[in-house]
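Field reference: sequence -> structure
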Amino acid sequence: MPPRRSIVVFACLALLSTIVLTVHKIGTAKPNLLAKLVPTKASTQAQDPQPVKETPGQPCAKDIEWLADLDIQYPIQYAEREIVVRPKPGLERKSLTKIDETLFSQSKESVASKKSPLELRDCKPPLILDVPVFPTTPVNASNMVFGMATTLDRLEDSRHHIARWLAHTGAKLFVVVIKPDKGNEASDEEISIKQGAMRDQGMDVTLVRPLSKDEMFTESYFSLVKVMYTHRSEESSWFVLMDDDTFFPSMQALLAMLGKYDPNQQHWVGALSEMWWSVGRYGMMAFGGAGIFLSRGLAAVLDGEYETCTTEMHKAAGGDERVMRCIYGHTETKLTYEPALHQMDIFGDLSGVYESGRFPLSLHHWKGGDYPVNLMSLVSDVCGDCFLQRWQFGKDTVLSNGYSIAQYPEGEYANGLDFRKAEETWDSHTVEESVNPGTWHSMSPSRPRLELDKQKIQYRLLDSAIVDGRVRQTYVHTGKKDGDPTTVLVLYWSREDGKAGNTNGTQSS
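Structure field:
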């Protein structure tokens, strides 16, 4: 055999011996080493998620003079991030989208007073988030007629909120102006001025006086059935009774929901109260704060029975109860329950609702708490139906868009967290001898509440504004002890294509 061939054969034999020896060592190794080399299905599930990306940033100067206009206690710790949304065809909104990157820098800048300059040591690059495609032009809701009964002062309190969803849509709104409990009734001039102000905002609004001078509120509310149907047009398909503190986050989503039903048939669409005791008391009724949707076919029947129902329903406690009694008393129509409509009859801390990731078709009772829905929903100008959509950044931070940024110090897997379930932050009201503990029918699935500032640190939305075509959100957590800094987290939202502006053509004021 030639020398060169002998060398090659010897090398091959040596390599083969090494491989056999290595396999033998692995085969006789301890089980935990084998598990690391070749993970089993169980060990793979038990592994921690991949390390969170920490995108490096660059130092930059920031103008924060605008913070002086907000009610914030100094000193503060400050961080900000720009988010650019990218409409993606075919993408559907999810309850929770996980992003393997932190939202803010690990270090926050300290600011001693309102006049302090700010130099961020770590300005992260813009974060790109994909969102479903949404229209950038006003929707056509000319087939809808809305109605409410309220005082002129309460209408003014709601004017900008109503403009958020009604302006430039073609939908009509009729307001029966009632006399306040205290004070004088509005003059013709005051009514005319208010109507003009709302029309200047792009709303097709008509203010009218009660049909009867001695009407109580419940009677005025029920009279909306007659008022709206009398002023219908050929396009009018849906007649909606609502309260002055009812808010519809998306007219587009509202139209999509109603598109499931034939308006020529008799349909009564609405929501039950979130509290089971209310359902037990009033029955299967569309509660007015969530919006009562009457199809053209049903409205025609109620209009024909209006005088009879007005006479029969004098004992009804509320306007929505009068509507229910008239429908059950003179038609075979039954309530169609749309759970995305919200009466919001629950009390206490409503964070569990707003942080659930569920998109609401309507919200109610925002005047009764710190829930500025017009500011909360302003981000919709940039990303469509992303209002209250949730993104999880890394292992411990969840953004509920427009409401809060929540940090879970012990991580998402601690405390049995399941973000599919709504946190029970609200006050419970049990019903005796009922298996429903109170909100099963409306808020399930749910999980126990967490202890604030220990298991969950919550940064609530304080302000939202349109700045240079972007939506600026300011989230705040106030220190619990004297001298503790206030943490201010700011998000700037914009579209990848540079477009912005409410799809109904309005801005919040």
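Note: The first strand starts at residue 58 and ends at 62.
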